[in-house]
Amino acid sequence: MRRTHLLLAIALGSAVGMTSPALAQGDEAEGDTPIQHTIIVYQENISFDHYFGTFGHGSAGIPAGVQLFHTTPSGTQLGPYAPFRLDGLSQPNTCDVDHEYWDMVGMTNGGTMDRYLQFGNDLTAPNPSTPGPCPSFETNPAGPALALGYYEGTAGDPSAPLQNYWRLASQYTLADNFFSGMYGPSTPGAQWLVAATANTVGDPNPAGDVCNDYGGPFMPQQDIPNLGAEASANDVSWAWFQGGFGTCVTAAGAGYIPHHDPFQYFTSTADPTHTWAWNPRMNFPEPDRHQRDLAVFYDALAGSPIGGIVPRLPRISWVKAPTPADGHPGYSGPVADDAFIGDLVNRVQASPYWKHTAIFVTFDETGGWWDHVAPPVPADPHFAPLVNGYPNLSGCQYPGMGNPCGEAGFGPRMPLLVISPFAKRHAVDHDLMDTSSLAKWVETTYQLPPLGVWGDRDVNAGDLGGAFDFSAEGQN
After folding, report:
1. Which tens digits make up the pLDDT trace of 342-386?
2. d(CA 207, CA 394)
3. What are the domain boundaries of the chain?
4. In which band, very low, low, confident or very high, does the pLDDT at 242 lie, cut at 50, 70 and 90?
5. Is the distance from CB of 362 to CB of 418 less than 8 angstroms?
6. I need a surface site. Which of 233, 242, 294, 324 has the fewest CB within 10 A?
7. Which CATH code for domain 2-7+32-48+161-467?
């Protein structure tokens, strides 16, 4: 399949008369700054407690003795239910707990974090990602409170699937006070990663994407500032790498999900025909030529030519796994997620880029999995816990669209791993940060102007610099 998508790259090689592999032209020369390449890996639907609740090492994990109750629609109270360990051998995948915007605001219950079973585990309808209904409290009150489940990564334990996650967290830096930029679901979370704002309701597909996997609703492209367009305007190479982008394999569990790709929603960066999926060059001045298949990222790390041209790793890489490995409950899970992260880090460490690279691993949102830490309410008056007593289903409206916004502020807590020769070793970073801290890192590291979008969340975001130690020479 892939070779059928290499015609453009081969044509590029022929046009310049190449007879042996050459580097992609025009990319920046390597310099002496500690971090030259940033790789942000963006997985799916995991809260901090779901993956690191029992990790220890000074991190803020699950408190002892915590219990939650479930109140049925008729008012009957069931429980108490306690957090419980999911077995990676017998439960390598789970159902997908509810995680729509309105539901996630309800779960946190104004910061008490005690209504996850009402709004996240109220699974009386067929699960959207798994055929058939998932267990509900009403029909199976003795069953597990799924939203309270957590996995582990204890070394050498085959029932603990997070072996790579916990190993890397132990070796480098784990942030335990990192929150999603807003409440879910996936599309606004992805937009927040690259624009420090969002303007979507739910998970609409990007209009015009030739790989769209369902028939709507569709979101037209919007004129919202984003980091990709800013990088192109400032001659900084970048790419969004996503599994299945070059092959249009869209079935759940097979490859590419359009609503996980934020750059398809912006007028400046959208490539709805996937024309540039296999192009080895990542520094085009046109911002709509920077989305690539994940295989191109691997080729850049390995120095493998595409049509006679060896792609160079861009300064900024956003990486999205193919659906089987993105960790989303229902069609993926922690086993595949953990293997993907371990393999990706190994590839980077084996490449010549490793000595000047920072890898960040985090998630689009928490997916409805319970976490015990209340999201802080930002001081900015644009962000209020509720609007007229109710959450705003429109999410955070970008002001350029002309719509008011009463966003509920930070969403729940997620893990963030910082992996680099310059990352602090065996460390837990307790600094308050959120998804827009990753936007701030990109802006600061590559001298891009702040997006400065509504709320100035990137400008005011917590700084990731505390996870690094640049006073000593980078280590392997």
Report:
1. 999 999 999 999 999 999 999 999 999 999 999 887 655 555 555
2. 18
3. 2-7+32-48+161-467
4. very high
5. no
6. 233
7. 3.40.720
